[in-house]
Design brief:
By secondary structure, the protein is an alpha/beta fold. It folds into 4 domains: about 5-280, Alpha-Beta Barrel (TIM Barrel), CATH 3.20.20.300; about 305-520, 3-Layer(aba) Sandwich (Rossmann fold); about 550-665, Immunoglobulins (Immunoglobulin-like); about 710-805, no CATH class. The strands form 9 sheets. The chain has a 6-stranded mixed β-sheet, sandwiched between helices. One of its GO terms (molecular function) is beta-glucosidase activity. Homotetramer.
């Protein structure tokens, strides 16, 4: 039986989930149910009913390094290896779809979910994501790149409008997704919670129809983020296939009624239902056990995979006087609570119940430090506490017994999580005090830095060496020791710029935006594009990373199809590095950053070895998006082609005469400060010139609607609504103070618009009941309660009828 032969109601039923993690099956049509699961760096296969934020129990699985860490490897093949392991575990755990990779551009270092995203640059994000997707799908499991698109802040994430000019959106925020779609052909893609230029992403025709499906040729399934569907009818009409999690039968009835009344073309319903059915059949595997577990071999082998990824992703930030690697027999004073209880992943829906764990302290105590001797261990600081001078004094005293101090410091669990953004870029002050005290001793100080995104590092002058391990997964401790001892040569390079201070960031003055609109005033000047163009000095540039080896670049040749050059490891130690291809447009052309990354290659060389490296151009190398013609164009003229060891340091340079599609066209003088990249100085006239129209903000909310977050009820005239908002806020604050961890479910509720209640309660609440609920914050308590109660009984009756029609009960 074909999908088109099903009843309208049956086809509509395929467009929403059956439970938190499963889709509906239609046995008479041979359409199986699919199980979907987070996450991007390890399976979160929950038992029981499950929840969308990772609060419930989940089965053990390998916790790999997070995307923000893996991106520092600049190695798509390594990402592919990780994807193959993820896909294998998905099969073992009965999972059809892995909800990842996360690949939003890192617009600002304070985004709470940056650890889940790859980079500030679409080339790195797109190519790393493509590697992971290819690996996952090689196992017959769907990958789901997310969150499409412009999901750049956690504050108000379900009720925020990302307002961005078309050219910046196309060139910066969508290009990574385009690379992943064109190269890896993902079978599914997930939309973001937010609006994009006034329309929810999950029903945005420009994103889903014009760009994703028509321009890029995507023919897979589009799924909403959990509770991220606004209108089921608009979603189906505009290219979104499946709303999750369990919207009950309310959405089914809405879609069926819209078809019957001619408000939804039946061809659109058929297309969406066919996308769901096709993927369900594609990812169905005989013998797949929804109650399955990992095998002992998988646990062992994938732990080693996780270690190799962590080793390839760690970034050596400083190494004064060749302090690292440490020689066998070195007596180490190990300091820091994170050396005993490691933090190796972020908080939220991606949190994995790690199948295996290890710590630097345990490994050294067991003699697994490749010859390092543990002289002492000191806690050094309270993980979630204030300064404790006695702990610092103990660490300083214990250091006297050692040859070198290794201090493990970084951001704690409260700092990086889905649901909230960071309030600053600093590591905890008690850790800074510890570093300064240890740095004042006569012992060399090596810092192992744990964080999923950049931190301020004014303390770095106190250190002899700093190894940034990111959020390195369950095998991060052994990977770290392998690098410290030289068993592994560090080869990671930063996938985002580290500013000297948060005030230096281009969007610092307007991020995160608490208003309805999050206006991307900085335009294309994000990350290194800003620091280079506006001539603002950073702490560590994009693409930066040291090695125990040294590499020399020579003999650049540029032709019409790419570049060739010689790379030599002129040291006495094997190592790997990442040559990076940057281009600079002809002078006098359209507004652009001073240079942009257009390619890269991870290259490993033995001591003294030389090799020729080839990096090809592609269709994205020279293009820009022309808003006047709504098309991609290439400027003719003399392009500068550069090979860098990071975005700031260009090793080789050449030129190429490009015959493009248009002659260089000078930018509009009205762009003002944008012309020099100094986005902090732009005025409203320049913003209007960038966007092509005035950017108008929505005024203060006077009437609360179904899409205003519960947190906004604190300004309601209703005492009941104010109580709800304030109670939730105080409850989250108490939980964080007590446990040291954010209360993710409460944060989700605070950011949640009421309409999500109709999408996440398995039919218990429908759209009409939500409309009754929002009467309460608008001052109509009894009308709201009365409408809700009447709606409850009406909805239950309708659900029973729909269930019988679908033979579900």
């Amino acid at each position: 039986m074909e999908v088109k032969d099903l009843t309208v109601l049956e086809r509509a039923s395929l467009l929403s989930g059956k439970s938190t993690w499963a889709t509906r099956a239609l046995k008479r049509a041979g359409i199986p149910s699919m199980v979907l699961s987070d996450g991007p760096h390890g399976l979160r296969r929950q038992t029981g009913s499950g929840d969308n934020l990772g609060m419930g129990k989940s089965k053990p699985a390998t916790c790999f390094p997070t995307a923000g860490t893996v991106a520092c490897s600049w190695d798509p093949e390594l990402a592919k290896t990780m994807g193959q392991a993820l896909g294998s575990e998905a099969r073992s755990l009965g999972v059809n779809m892995v909800l990842g990779p996360g690949m939003n551009i890192k617009r600002n270092p304070l985004c709470g979910r940056n650890f889940e995203y790859y980079s500030e640059d679409p080339q790195v994000a797109g190519r790393m994501a493509a590697g992971l997707i290819e690996g996952i799908q090689s196992q017959g499991v769907a990958a789901t790149p997310k969150h499409f698109a412009m999901n750049s802040q956690e504050l108000r994430r379900q009720a925020s409008d990302s307002v961005v000019d078309e050219r910046t959106m196309r060139e910066l925020y969508l290009t990574g997704f385009e690379i992943a779609v064109r190269q890896a052909h993902p079978w599914a893609i997930m939309t973001s919670y937010n609006m994009v230029n006034g329309t929810y992403a999950n029903e945005n025709p420009h994103l889903l129809k014009d760009i994703l499906r028509k321009e890029w040729g995507f023919d897979g399934m589009v799924v909403s983020d959990w509770g991220g569907s606004n209108s089921a009818v608009a979603a189906a009409a505009n290219g979104s296939s499946l709303e999750m999690p369990q919207a009950g039968y309310d959405s089914v009835r809405q879609v069926a009624k819209a078809v019957q009344e001619g408000r939804l073309d039946e061809a659109d319903l058929n297309a969406r239902a066919e996308e769901v059915a096709r993927l369900a059949k594609l990812t169905y595997h005989s013998g797949m056990d929804p109650d399955g577990n990992l095998t002992a071999d998988q646990i062992r082998d994938h732990h080693q995979v996780a270690r190799s990824i962590a080793e390839g992703s760690a970034v050596l930030l400083i190494n004064r006087k060749g302090r690292l690697p440490l020689a066998a027999g070195t007596r180490v004073a190990l300091v820091g609570d994170m050396a005993e209880t490691p933090r190796f992943q972020g908080s939220g829906s991606s949190k994995v119940n790690a199948a295996k764990q290890e710590s630097m302290l345990d490994l050294l105590r067991q003699g697994n430090g490749d010859g390092l001797e543990l002289a002492s261990y000191s806690q050094g600081y309270e993980r979630h506490g204030e300064k404790n001078q006695s702990l610092i004094d103990q660490a300083v005293a214990a250091a006297g017994q050692a040859d070198v101090i290794v201090a493990c410091v970084g951001l704690d669990e409260r700092s990086e999580s889905e649901g909230l953004d960071r309030s600053h870029m600093d590591i905890p002050g008690n850790q800074v005090d510890l570093i300064k005290a240890l740095g004042a001793t006569d012992k060399p100080l090596v810092v192992v830095l744990v964080a999923g995104s950049p931190v301020t590092a004014d303390w770095i002058d106190q250190c002899d060496a700093v190894l940034y391990i990111g959020l390195s997964g369950q095998a991060g401790a052994s990977a770290t020791l392998n690098i410290l001892t030289g068993r592994v040569n560090p080869s990671g390079h930063l996938a985002e710029t580290w500013p000297k201070s948060y005030a230096d960031c281009p969007s610092a003055d307007w991020y995160p935006d608490p208003a309805h609109e999050s206006i991307y005033r900085e335009g294309p000047f994000v990350g290194y594009r800003y620091y280079l163009t506006a001539e603002v000095e950073e702490r560590f540039p994009f693409g930066y990373g040291l090695s125990y080896a040294h590499f020399a670049y020579a003999d650049l040749t540029v032709d019409d199809k790419g570049v060739t050059f010689t790379l030599t490891n002129d040291s006495d130690r094997q190592g790997a590095t990442v040559p990076q291809l940057y281009v600079q447009a002809p002078k006098g052309g359209v507004l652009r950053p001073v240079r942009e990354l257009k390619g890269f290659k991870k290259v490993s060389l033995e001591a003294g070895q030389s090799t020729q490296v080839r990096i090809d151009f592609d269709q994205m190398t020279f293009r820009h998006f022309d808003t006047a013609s709504n098309s991609w164009q290439v400027e003719s003229g003399d392009w500068t082609i550069m090979i860098g060891s990071d975005a700031r340091k260009m090793e080789l340079s050449g030129h190429l005469r490009v015959q493009g599609t248009v002659d260089p066209q000078s930018p509009d003088p009205a762009l003002g400060a944008y012309l020099t990249g100094r986005v902090k100085e732009v005025d409203d006239a320049a913003v209007t010139a960038l966007f092509g129209h005035p950017v108008v903000r929505q005024g203060a909310v006077s009437t609360f609607g179904v899409n205003d977050p519960l947190s906004s009820w604190k300004d309601s005239r209703s005492a009941v609504a104010r109580f709800v908002a304030n109670f939730l806020a105080k409850s989250e604050s108490r939980h964080e103070t007590k446990t040291g961890n954010p209360d993710l479910n409460t944060l989700f509720l605070l950011n949640m618009p009421p309409r999500a209640m109709a999408k996440m309660t398995n039919g218990l609440i429908d759209t009409a009941m939500v409309e009754a609920i929002v009467r309460i914050p608008n001052g109509h308590l009894w009308r709201g309660l009365g409408g809700f109660i009447a709606g409850f009984f009406r909805n239950m009756s309708a659900n029973r009828k729909t269930g019988k029609e679908l033979n579900h009960e």
